[in-house]
Amino acid sequence: MLLALGGSGQALAQQVKNIPVVQAAVKTAVATTPTSTAVALVNSDAAVAREAGWLQKNGWPLYALVDKFSTGAPLSDEANCIAVAVYHEARGESLEGQLAVAQVIKNRAMSGKYPADWCGVVKQPWQFSFVRHGQFPSVDEHSAAWRKAVGITRLAVANAVQSVPKDCLWYHANYVAPRWSNNLQRVEQIGAHIFYRS
Q: Which of 21, 60, 135, 146 has the greatest CB tally within 10 Å of its CB?
């Protein structure tokens, strides 16, 4: 059949011999891509936002997104502060409630009324009841609650899922009635937490 198409057995043999060389060149080019660059692109906030947005549009519920983004590269120190706060403040709450707590921390840092970094917000005296003398209690990093806190944090940091509005800076548990809440506008209650804006 090759002869009928104008080819020869010798030409075909030469072409076949060159195929491994081409494949080797392709493999070498792929292998020289720095691994750290690829990892950085996969784990960037923009990549999380794009992927989570696409998945949401295709019907993924919050629990599936949290599960998907609960693993990956370690969180930055600042993002870890949010995850620790979510773990200690809201691990018994729904995922929506946990996401709202993470959003309040981010909102405070952007407000100009609180420290400008997430760890500063969480460690500010008298703001989060689990913080003692500027120190965090330990977390069980092998628990499902911690994995959820990490997934929630990745989604919150990437602004991938809508939560409470950006001007929502306060919340408290529904079993307390702090005086400061009297001067604020109630936004909504999610689980046991009531969220406020000024």
A: 146
Alpha-carbon distance of 33 to 166, in angstroms, equals: 39
Name the pairing type of β-strands 185-190 and 193-197: antiparallel
- Residue 86 phi, psi (nearest 5): -60, -45
Coil, strand or helix: which one is 116? Answer: coil
Structure tokens at 97: 């409630």
Q: Is 133 left (phi over 0), alpha (psi -120 to 50) or beta?
A: left
Closest CA to 107 of 157, 181, 39, 72: 157
Between 14-28, 110-124, 129-143, 164-178, the lowest mean confidence (pLDDT) is in 14-28
At residue 48, the 3 state secondary structure works out as helix
In the block, which residue shows the tokens 């720095």? 34
pTM over 0.90: no
Q: Sheet holding 185-190: strands in order across?
A: 168-173, 193-197, 185-190
User: Residue 44 and residue 40: Cα distance in Å, rounded?
Assistant: 6
The least confident of 16-25, 61-70, 106-115 is 16-25
